[in-house]
Write a structure and sequence with these properties.
elongated; five-stranded antiparallel beta sheet; 224 residues; single chain; SH3 type barrels; alpha+beta
């Protein structure tokens, strides 16, 4: 009875996520088309430095429409992709996809706005490049864990709730553990000594694989 209740609850959750994903795509498609139309109209008919008033009004109006509907389209597309990945993998993977998609979408909107308003981006690119290098060096370990989490989620060497054996010199040799969760930065496992949070980059460098439960080992052994 309890198993049926859990299965029914899981199916309801999947159906709710599916409906939300369909709604996200229904909103994202027209918002994306409006964003593209605003960019085309503003580039073709607008001129922010023109002597006439009408081209200025057109370009500023197009920039406002592009900003509003571009943000809506970005948020809906990232939510739709996040729901899609969540239903096929785990919640942490969906969160990572939403984060990356949102960042790329906002970057495209900023570049489109600057191009539409005829703003020189040479100095901005130089500053952004320097800032990117500094942030990359400062957050090297954190970014390594994030990218390692993506590899772990795609390769799936283990799953949540599985009993695994880990071989790693950095972690002190060989030990058995139960996977409790996988996030963007850590893999949480339970060992005989307690709960451990292993950085994803370290976990990616280990040799890990599932092991049979004691009941399964006893069942596979021939009877005397």
């Amino acid at each position: 009875m309890k198993r049926r209740t859990l299965l029914r609850h899981r199916q309801k959750t999947i159906d709710a996520i599916s409906r939300a994903r369909q709604h996200d795509w229904k909103v994202a498609l027209p918002a994306g088309l409006i964003t593209a139309a605003a960019l085309v109209v503003g580039s073709a008919l607008g001129n922010v430095h023109g002597p006439a008033i009408r081209p200025r009004v057109v370009v500023w109006s197009s920039a406002a429409v592009l900003l509003v509907f571009g943000v809506i389209a970005t948020r809906r597309v990232s939510a739709g992709l996040g729901h899609l990945v969540t239903t096929r993998t785990i919640t942490a993977a969906g969160a990572a996809v939403r984060l990356v998609t949102t960042g790329v979408g906002y970057l495209i909107i900023i570049c489109a706005e600057l191009g539409l308003l005829d703003v020189s981006i040479d100095h901005l690119l130089v500053g952004a490049g320097l800032a990117g290098v500094i942030l990359g060096i400062a957050a090297q370990q954190s970014l390594g864990n994030v990218f390692a989490s993506v590899v772990l989620l795609l390769a799936k060497p283990f799953s949540v709730g599985e009993r695994i054996r880990i071989r790693s010199g950095a972690l002190g040799g060989i030990f058995d553990a139960t996977v409790l969760g996988v996030s963007l930065t850590y893999v949480t496992v339970r060992t005989d000594d307690g709960v451990l949070k292993i950085p994803n980059s370290v976990m990616l460098a280990t040799a890990a694989g599932p092991i049979a439960a004691p009941q399964e080992i006893a069942a596979d052994q021939p009877a005397p």
